[in-house]
Amino acid sequence: MAIFNKENIKFAKSWIKNPKRMGTxxxxxxxxxxxxxxxxxxxxxxxxxxxxxxxxxxxxxFISSSNNADKIICVEIDEELCKILQxxxxxxxxxxxxxxxxxEYIPNDILNNVEVIISSxxxxxxGKTITKEIITSCxxxxxxxxxxxIHVAYTPFVPFASYGMKKVFCKSVWGIPMTYIHCxxxx
Length: 187
Ligand SMILES: C[S@@+](CC[C@H](N)C(=O)[O-])C[C@H]1O[C@@H](n2cnc3c(N)ncnc32)[C@H](O)[C@@H]1O
Hints:
By secondary structure, this protein is an alpha/beta fold. It is built from 8 helices and 7 strands. It has helices at residues 6-17, 19-22, 30-39, 58-66, 79-88, 108-111, 123-126, 128-145; strands at 48-52, 72-75, 93-95, 114-119, 148-153, 165-173, 179-186. It is globular. The model has no long low-confidence stretch (mean pLDDT 96).
């Protein structure tokens, strides 16, 4: 796919408006998406996948290629990117909201079935309060479901251990910039 397509231009516009929240001006590459999906555990028949910070759906495409789209719940704060997600993944549940305290608006009967959380929230730049609110909500869900979070970032440093989470693995994807696929579980 060409780098300067409509979707990527919208993504870059969102970055110009709010660089700290976006973290990057281009969506994650398909190389990263492929490695992420190979690292992701299989979900059960009733299991669901919660993706936080879905952007324009670069990772969602890979998640939906190996799981039914109606198993995916996306949370994305940027309204323009949500419109792209809604068009591309009409069967997914899409929340145009902050992932902070997502457990206050996603019903329990859905959260109880979330087995994997996929994140690409730029924790290094969104600030401590938002990071804390997002990760504590993730810990609550993962603890009761014995699930994992897969977090994709351009840094090997992630804050999950400070919230009592245990590292399962960290895989690197070579390229510029280097990308890291972190997997943690709540204990
Ligand atoms: C690094 S981009 C990754 C986008 C996409 N997942 C990809 O694969 O390219 C981070 C995304 O997280 C979103 N984001 C940042 N803070 C958020 C928050 N508090 N709640 C929900 N989404 C957030 C941004 O709007 C952006 O789309």
